[in-house]
Each structure stands twice: as structure tokens, then as C-alpha cells.
Amino acid sequence: MEKKDGGEGKFDLEERTFQFALRIRQCVSTHRWTRGQWTDLKQLLRSSGSVAANYVEADNAASRPDFIYRIGVSKKEAVESRLWLRLLGATTTAPPAIEALRPLYREADELTRILAAILRSSK
User: Fold this and answer.
1) Which is nearest to 80 in space by CA: 53, 101, 109, 38?
2) Residue 123: its pLDDT value, please?
3) CB within 8 A of 114, min separation 6: which ones?
4) Pair 77, 50: CB distance under 8 Å
5) Is-contact 84 40, C-beta < 8 A?
6) Assuming Cys at both sites, which of 13, 15, 27, 79 could form a disulfide with 2, CB separation 3.0 to 4.6 Å?
7) Among candidates 102, 58, 100, 48, which has minimal Cα distance to 78?
8) SS3 letters for the chain?
């Protein structure tokens, strides 16, 4: 599991997943979206929050199988967030919104890779 002391070379994945969900919420509330994008936005809000929530659950797991299960769910939700971000990017024509979505997509991809690595090393 990840270190939480914020020391040099260490990172807090709980905080990183929280910040991801927060940045999604800020992006959604900052930009104008079409009615056709509302469903994708709702799904993105749910999946990004679930990345963080399931990581917190994994970090406080009662057993190794519970930890593995929660990390797996968190990874799946990161993959889903990446999909919704991709769909929003493909249906958005406003340059500011597109620019806001790019780093969020990259972060969803990085979180997916990190969580996949944790999952692989935990099995």
C-alpha cells in the first residue's frame, strides 16, 4: 500500500484519487455542456468519485481479498472515467472545455495504470 507521510519520493494515492474526483467536479461546474452530454457527465461524476471511494475502502480493508476486490473496483471505475472523458472530448467543440478534459483524461489513464500495478502485485 502507498505511504501517506508525504515524504520525498512518496505519494498519497488516497489524496490523488480525491483530487481527481474534485477536479472532475470543478471541470463539470465550470464549463457549458449540451443536453446530450448530461448523461455522460453524470456517469463521469459517479465513476470518478467511485475511484476515490473504493481506494479508501481498499486502504482500510479488513482482509487481503477485500483489499484486492476494492482495488479492482477502483481500477474499473478509473477505466470507466477515462471512457466518459473520451466521449465528452469527442462531443465537445468548445476549446476551453477540451483543454480542461485533456489533463483529466491523462490522470484517469495514470490512475488506471497505478491501480492495475497494485492489483497485479497484490495477487
Assistant:
1) 109
2) 82
3) 13
4) yes
5) yes
6) 13
7) 48
8) CCCCCCCCCCCCHHHHHHHHHHHHHHHHHHCCCCHHHHHHHHHHHHHHHHHHHHHHHHHCCCCHHHHHHHHHHHHHHHHHHHHHHHHHHHHCCCHHHHHHHHHHHHHHHHHHHHHHHHHHHHC
Radius of gyration of the chain (CA): 15
Chunked into runs of 10 residues, the chain (123 residues) has average pLDDT values of 44 94 98 95 98 96 96 98 97 95 98 97 90
Are the beta carbons of 37 and 91 closer than 8 angstroms? yes
Amino acid at 67: F
**Residues near 55 by beta carbon (within 8 Å), at least 6 away in sequence:** 13, 14, 17, 70, 71, 74, 115
The separation between CA 84 and the C-alpha centre of its own chain, rounded to angstroms, equals 11
C-alpha cell at 23: 477536479
